[in-house]
Amino acid sequence: MDEDSVPECYRKPILILGCGNILFGDDGFGPAVIEHLLKNYEIPEEVCVMDVGTGVREIFFTIILSEAKPRRIIIVDSVDAGRPPGEIFEIPIEDIPKNKIDDFSLHQLPTSNLLRELRDFGGVEVSIISGQVESIPKAVKPGLSKSLSASIPEACQMIMAHLNKRE
């Protein structure tokens, strides 16, 4: 895939991607973090910040097939890792909860094989910043739980710390 066919945003050195479905409660954490980040922080020119909703898989396939790859990708998503609701933490690719490894049906934390390929063969540093869900409803019910909503600033601070770290 030639560089001209890859969207300009994907060619920036750093991508921050918020994953999730805003229609299903805490599943909308990634998009909520992206919204807060864009409204409250000055984002460096070399960084692309996107709410990718439930469409992250297509983005990763595009990047994997592209000659030009970002240096770093930061993924923001909610997970159920059995921690206290609202806790913000980083997950190594190898520690993605089993129920999320190949899950593309709800909020699409990218499959572990795509993430490993980006890291191991593409030379891309991959970070996954997660928020522990309180609950994800089975029916449409927009809006984050109070515990996860209160954690959005902490997730943004963690993202900014990643941006400020030197190579």
What this model shows, in words?
The protein is of the alpha/beta class and 167 residues long. It has one domain: 3-Layer(aba) Sandwich (Rossmann fold), CATH 3.40.50.1450. Helices cover 29% and strands 19% of the residues. The chain contains five helices and five strands; from the N terminus they run E-H-E-H-E-E-H-E-H-H. The chain has a five-stranded mixed beta sheet. Strand 1, helix 1 and strand 2 form a beta-alpha-beta unit.
Q: Quick recap of the structure?
A:
By secondary structure, this protein is of the alpha/beta class.
Structural class by secondary-structure content: alpha/beta
Strand content: 15-25%
The largest β sheet comes out as: 5 strands, mixed
Indicate how many domains the architecture comprises.
1
Count of DSSP H/I helices: 5
- Specify the overall morphology: globular
CATH second-level architecture: 3-Layer(aba) Sandwich
Return the CATH class: Alpha Beta
- For CATH, the homologous superfamily is named as HybD-like
Helix and strand pattern: EHEHEEHEHH
Number of DSSP strand runs:
5
Oligomer, anyone?
single chain
How confident overall, as mean pLDDT? 85
The percentage helix is 25-40%
Residue ranges: pLDDT <50 for 5 or more in a row?
101-110
Q: End-to-end distance, in Å?
A: 27 Å
